[in-house]
């Protein structure tokens, strides 16, 4: 039996259902933010499944969780597959979790089919991909790849002042796993990540498999406007330094400036904080986050300049500043991995199309270390980062079949 | 000795310093929100001072706190003076607290001068004037005056879901006082409230006493925009229903529409809430509060219509609605009380000017029950609802002298 044939749609679907209970919301989504109690529960569950199959489990200093199926050459750099188990505050059941469970299904399918591979095969759950609680996102894979420094990340605080180091220690206490010594990161022979598309293209083109060619670049910013608190009833407009009025002028100009004709630039203000937040006090401070993405680094650069000009010109009589929090350049995946994904989908008679990824993924960091690629499957109406996120058992299993076929070949190279 | 002469500037100033420790902030302001632990502490302190002077203390079902100095005719409706002890989250030491301490100073001055009055004189601390934690504000005085129903107010929740009834019970447990039976409210022979101006006019005109002629009307609203959460990296602009983008369009249009030529309309967006508040998720919901004030009810009415038109026309592709939370009509104070305040300021050789109040005060509700008026004293640069709020001991004492003179005369009518 081939590894692809050994993939079990029912088992993979049931694992999604089991995981969706951890942080499950009344609307059918999940709230399983990075290094929360729910994240611990997911780690424990994955580790228990791994141990039941006799796979080795270990973690590293940023909390990435690895499940290893041994190869004939234990010293050969393993091939890896995975994604993340943390979610948005009102996230879906499939974003990230599918990539982890598809990788684990691949390990089980190889095991069930009695297939030996030269290289070990690893399923990995990267820490804090979403970046909704601790910024920046894709943190675990970025530390693994050496893009961010471990020590810097351990000191990051969430919006409530909780330090990542403490949240991580608590998470690992609740879901213990053997710790790999030293800084995160080790040699890999290849990496393939499965993920729901999080966009509408596969569904609208009635295609099962997205052969992902690369990931658009992204930049994140924080804009802060500083004014002066004042009484809402007595302070004339001429005397006001209203920080939210300034933030509104800035945001309105930014929405206008980022409305490109071909609708390729992605511009999002996702988090807004206005202080002191009293209905009858003129706001003294207002801040908001910007998430901006485009496949071309030049376009991102030009728009960053525009955003900076807007902040400088629209703030008066308040002060305002814009700080770049992260910049991730566009990623091009390895042509050989792209070709392999397409070839395996064809061999399994699964409809497929080449496409770039609109979202960032852990694969963008791991692609710096080894030949890497991604496999997309459709999600309903393209809805993601939403409790209504959905996918079909058949599509999820199809993606896992392509994945196991690709991993098997990479693990024997 | 007259009551005015018995006012002690040092005592009044010290009481402000003592109260400023309760909820004191590093920047010298206070955070003593309604029915908080700090509010309890202030109640306890005021009651302890009252008991030390032999004044009766009691409370009512909405938590208004009364200190009563007996009159010769115990059955005559008392005259009252007071304000509030709760503050904005980043408030100052004088807003509200001055009116309570000036009224208490008036009681002490009458006592020290051995003055007997026909009517009892009451100093009162009204519950929750600020409305920054529990809306609507001026709640205690409004319930006392029958403008809001007690039962409705007891069910109000703060932004964290704490029910007012529970916060009130906790506050009264921590600062017990004899409870007056029945619904709040009893007959009054007159009411005069002292307050810092919270605006720049007295200071800029080098005038000590503001003879307050009335209070501008105010209306509060909540605007809510409903969109759809979506992934910030993958969702094209054409497919987005971005609730914060809609809120920005609405807010920008409102700021523009409320920029009246004579700068009399007060328009403030003070609290903003964007959900789910993740940097890489398109917001599904955005809401903000509006506080709008003007001396003319017709102007308020016309602008409310404009706000409604803006919400209806700018929300697409989101849905949006605007709800009016409160409407308080402009207040005209009693001409006889206004004349009395002016006459007593003149008699004390204190510079004075007639002026309307830009801010709302508890006096606007009590003016429905009995002849009422207000006394303003200057505050530094007109700054209020701000930790930097400041006033001079001499001005505070001057206002208290006018107050005791006015109360003495009203209490003998």
Description:
Two copies of one chain form a homodimer. With 413 residues, the first copy, chain A, is an alpha/beta fold. Chain A folds into two domains: 3-216 and 330-412, Aminopeptidase (3-Layer(aba) Sandwich), CATH 3.40.630; 217-328, Alpha-Beta Plaits, CATH 3.30.70.360. Helices cover 35% and strands 23% of the residues of chain A. Chain A has helices at residues 3-6, 9-20, 37-52, 97-112, 139-144, 150-154, 164-174, 201-204, 243-257, 297-314, 335-347, 363-366, 393-412, and strands spanning 56-59, 65-69, 79-84, 121-126, 190-196, 209-215, 217-226, 230-231, 266-275, 281-282, 285-294, 319-328, 331-332, 352-357, 372-377. In chain A, strands 1, 2, 3, 4, 5, 6, 13, 14 and 15 form a nine-stranded mixed beta sheet that branches. Chain A has a four-stranded antiparallel beta sheet with strand order 9-11-7-12. In chain A, strand 3, helix 4 (97-112) and strand 4 form a beta-alpha-beta unit. In chain A, helix 4 (97-112) crosses helix 13. The longest helix of chain A has 20 residues, at 393-412. At the A-B interface, strand 8, helix 9, strand 9, strand 10 and strand 11 of A face strand 8, helix 9, strand 9, strand 10 and strand 11 of B.
Uncertain spans of chain A, ≥5 residues at pLDDT below 50?
Answer: none
Helical fraction of chain A equals: 25-40%
Beta-strand segment tally of chain A: 15
Form type of chain A: globular
Give a brief outline of the structure.
Two copies of one chain form a homodimer. By secondary structure, chain A is α/β, with parallel strands linked by helices.
């Amino acid at each position: 039996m081939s590894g692809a044939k050994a993939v079990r749609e029912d088992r993979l679907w049931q694992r999604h259902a089991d995981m969706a209970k951890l942080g499950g919301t009344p609307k059918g989504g999940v709230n399983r933010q990075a290094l929360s109690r729910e994240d611990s529960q997911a780690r424990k569950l994955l580790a228990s499944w791994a141990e039941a199959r006799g796979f080795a489990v270990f973690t590293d200093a940023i909390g990435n969780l690895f499940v290893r199926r041994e190869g004939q050459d234990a010293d050969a750099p393993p091939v890896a597959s995975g994604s993340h188990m943390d979610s948005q505050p009102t996230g879906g059941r499939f974003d990230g979790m599918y990539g982890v469970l598809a990788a684990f299904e691949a390990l089980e399918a190889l095991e069930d089919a009695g297939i030996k591979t030269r290289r070990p095969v690893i399923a990995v759950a990267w820490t804090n991909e979403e970046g909704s609680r601790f910024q920046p996102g894709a943190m675990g894979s970025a530390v693994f790849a050496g893009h961010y420094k471990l020590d810097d990340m351990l000191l990051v605080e969430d919006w409530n002042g909780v330090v990542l180091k403490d949240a991580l220690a608590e998470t690992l206490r609740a879901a213990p796993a053997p710790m790999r010594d030293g800084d995160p990161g080790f040699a890999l022979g290849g990496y393939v990540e499965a993920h729901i598309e999080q966009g509408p293209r596969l569904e609208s083109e009635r295609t099962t498999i997205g052969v992902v060619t690369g990931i658009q670049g992204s930049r994140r910013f924080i804009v802060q406007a500083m004014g002066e608190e004042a009484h809402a009833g007595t302070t004339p407009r001429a005397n006001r330094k209203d920080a939210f009025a300034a933030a509104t002028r800035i945001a309105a100009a930014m929405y206008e400036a980022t409305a490109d004709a071909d609708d390729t630039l992605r511009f999002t203000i996702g988090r807004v904080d206005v202080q002191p937040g009293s209905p009858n006090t003129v706001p003294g401070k207002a801040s908001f986050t910007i998430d901006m993405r485009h496949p071309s680094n030049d376009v991102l650069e030009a728009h960053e300049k525009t955003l900076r000009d807007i902040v400088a010109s629209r703030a008066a009589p308040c002060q305002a500043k814009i700080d770049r929090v992260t910049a991730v350049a566009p990623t091009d995946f390895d042509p050989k991995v792209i070709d392999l994904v397409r070839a395996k989908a064809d061999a399994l008679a699964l409809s497929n199309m080449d496409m770039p990824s609109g979202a960032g993924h852990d694969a963008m960091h791991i692609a710096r270390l080894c030949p890497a690629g991604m496999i997309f499957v459709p999600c309903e109406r393209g809805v993601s980062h939403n409790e209504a996120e959905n996918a079909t058992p058949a599509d999820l299993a199809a993606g896992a079949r392509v994945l196991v076929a690709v991993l098997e070949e990479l693990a024997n190279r």
